[in-house]
Amino acid sequence: MKNVFVHFPRHFAALKRLMATQMPVEQTIRQKLQETFQPKFLEVINESYMHNVPKGSETHFKVVVVSEKFDSQPLIKRHRMVNEVLKEELSLGVHALSIIAKTPQQWDESGNNIGKSPPCRGGAGL
Fold first, then answer.
1. 12-38, pLDDT tens digit by residue?
2. Which listed site, 14, 28, 110, 125, has its alpha carbon 20 to 30 Å from 4?
3. Is 82 buried (19+), middle (13-18) or exposed (0-12) by CB count in 10 A?
């Protein structure tokens, strides 16, 4: 098995620094999204286990944010809002972020369905 640190050394080193000085990444993401959007529903899913990274990594996340702050905002603007809140985490080791950003009405109309993430198709494991 290849050592993934060869392919992502800066990301893992930065992520280790972030984790050493702050709370775990998943908890930080949850806290920042909660404080910023006061969501009706929030889920932060660490999907790193689905990828070719060391066990216990916090590099791949899916976030589901349902907030009235998204009312009358186009989807691209919602994604930009979430990315802005998490810019530090994205610059320090979070490699992938899947965003589901809905208004409460859209969430109800969707049947509160998050959907399943596809399997990893890339990275150092190929």
1. 565 555 555 445 999 999 999 999 999
2. 28
3. buried
Beta bridge partners of 42: 65
CA–CA distance, 95 with 85 (Å, rounded to integer): 16
Residue 65: beta bridge partners? 42, 101
Q: Which phi and psi (to 5°) does residue 18 adopt?
A: -60, -45
pTM (predicted TM-score)? 0.76
Rounded Cα–Cα distance for residues 37 and 82 (Å):
9
Given CATH 3.30.300.90, say whether it is the number of domain 4-110. yes
Q: Which residues contact 93 (CB under 8 A, 6 or more apart)?
A: 11, 12, 14, 15, 16, 18, 25, 58, 59
DSSP code of 116?
P
Q: Match 């790193």 to its residue by tokens.
A: 48
**Separation between Cα atoms, residue 67 and residue 100, nearest integer Å:** 11
79, two tokens: 């994604």
Give the Å distances, CA to CA, from 60 to 37, 46, 84, 109.
21, 6, 17, 27
60-66 β-sheet, strand order: 41-46, 60-66, 96-102
